[in-house]
Amino acid sequence: PKPQNAITVAVSSRALFDLVEERRIYEEHGVEKYVEYQQNNENVILKPGPAFYFVKALEHVNARLLELYPDDEERFDIVLMTNNHAQVGVRLINSINHYGLTIERFCMTGGESPIGYLTAYLTNLYLSADSEKVQEAIEAGIASATMFTANKDVAYSDTQLRVAFDGDAVIFSDESEQIVKEQGLDRFFEHEQLNENKPLAQGPLKDFLEDLGKLQKKFYAKNERLNCPIRTYLVTARSAASSGARVLKTLRSWGLEIDEALFLAGAPKGPILVKIRPHIFFDDQMFHIKGAQKLGTIAAHVPYGVAQKYRKS
């Protein structure tokens, strides 16, 4: 699809493939040895990385959209966005072709940061294994997250893209989280009830949730609601009775639907995510990322909002 019509997802090579050993060579022996190693092994297929099954699921959605809307270009376009050198490209191409992925656009910046290209590519979502690059992208106003590999292998749906989002500082702004951190839970509950009818400001992943919703409606229009290949989940530490109404009313005010909303009232998210088995789970707090990882969920850290300040301190 043409970039202006597509939902562009930019993925780094270390997010798409397992490049742990190659990264070790780069860090211990430098860029020349790294490039030499990659060229010598360009026919050795790379193993899947943390974003691999998410990308496969995006491509399944594309295939379904093409069946229903063969002339419509509003679908996912995957771009490999990496600071690798062009000499490494052959191994990446061989691995992409081996797995039957449709990734036609590459941006290989030869050691320079790729962030400046994200805007030029009209990027809707950027996934990387490099937290500094992700932070840079977030500061540039681009929806971004750092990918983390799950500690256990689990089976993912190959017929339905499943995306799970935290609420505050992910879909929504960190306005309410600031009150929790600075004034405590009691003041937070009071604030949320007083402002129940005032929509929360949007967070960094709101637009991506909206993109998913637009595609879902294309399936609904063809009477495919029950067979929709996209399912979205809100997995929040909020309590439903004390602070859930504002969240649901905010989504309603934006005209957005979420398929499942799970209010956990501070309980761990990991066991719920095991049940959902999302291809990706977005959260702004590393505590939840690590809990998800431990139980086999591929998690993506969104470095946005007040929680980052507390993590650094």
TrEMBL record:
Biological process (GO), any one: nucleotide metabolic process
- Which cellular components does GO assign to this protein? cytosol
What Pfam family does this protein match (any one)?
Answer: 5-nucleotidase
Highest taxon listed in the record's lineage:
Eukaryota
Q: Give GO terms: molecular function aspect only.
A: 5'-nucleotidase activity; magnesium ion binding; nucleotide binding
Name used for this protein in its record: 5NT1B nucleotidase
Organism, per UniProt? Dryoscopus gambensis
Q: Which gene encodes it?
A: Nt5c1b
